[in-house]
Amino acid sequence: MRNIENTIPIYEAQTPPQELAERINLEIAKSKKRRKAQSGYAGFKIAGAMAACLAIFIILLNTNQGFAMAASRIPVVGSVARVFTFRSYEEKTADQELKVEIPEVVPQESAASGQVKDYTLKVNQLIQEKVDQFVEESKQRVQEYKEAFIATGGTEEEFKEHDIKSSVTYDVKLQQDNILSFVIMTSENWVSAYNQNFYFNMDLNTGKDITLDEVLGANYVQTANESILRQMKERTEQNPDYTYFTPEEGGFETIGPDTSFYINEKGNPVVVFAKYEVAPGFMGTQEFEIEKP
């Protein structure tokens, strides 16, 4: 297996959190108020210089990993700049195109040691293991597919026409105070059966995973089950083509402690079922927001 760290990175980037943009907008608004108390031209120059500096900061944070890490030591915006970082790279061969984005969780300075530090290190190691495993298995699947294709009469040129693409990416669902919820998504455009998502719900204050019972309370199973069944009923009533597997067909019966979910911007858990898990494939991934009691 070719280690991911040994591949040539196409680019490295940081995503500026929403809190940073909001804080920058707030500072611009403040500068406009100050401008009214100053002479027009001088005030305009000050506000313009401030906006330019803030714009440069965003650009550097978004394009330079070293600057983003250094910014974590700057007062005021430090805790914002350090919440989330990622690396990206591409690999292209004659048989496959691979694109990978790897998230990395970085605790605030106050949590740089002890339980939270150990926790984030373990999470980052798990992320890397998941990515490494997918990349290795994806390459192996493509190779096996190619060998079978050639063995049954196909040619190298015909195989290239399949334009096989594999990817690893991520999506931050909630980044608020000490709560971080995100999902890592793996996909292969030629065989959806191997697509898989990994959900992470982290409390960066306690250094522990957030569980459904912590969000919904002691009766979380009943609360979630009732909400999911009600939403399933509503969806089938609104769309006659929709249908869900019955328990006898292997469909939904109940959630459990290992049920996949993320936390949305409202702070509600969203239970996620993979394609084919509770419904026919044409309905895709099924998500159900469970409102907190």
Automatic annotation (TrEMBL):
Task: Identify the Pfam families for this entry.
Answer: DUF3298
Is Ribosomal protein among the key words of this record?
A: no
Keyword annotations for this protein, in alphabetical order, are: Membrane, Transmembrane, Transmembrane helix
The record lists the membrane-crossing segments as: 40-61
Q: Where's the DUF3298 domain?
A: 209-291
> What domain of life?
Bacteria
UniProt name for this protein: DUF3298 and DUF4163 domain-containing protein
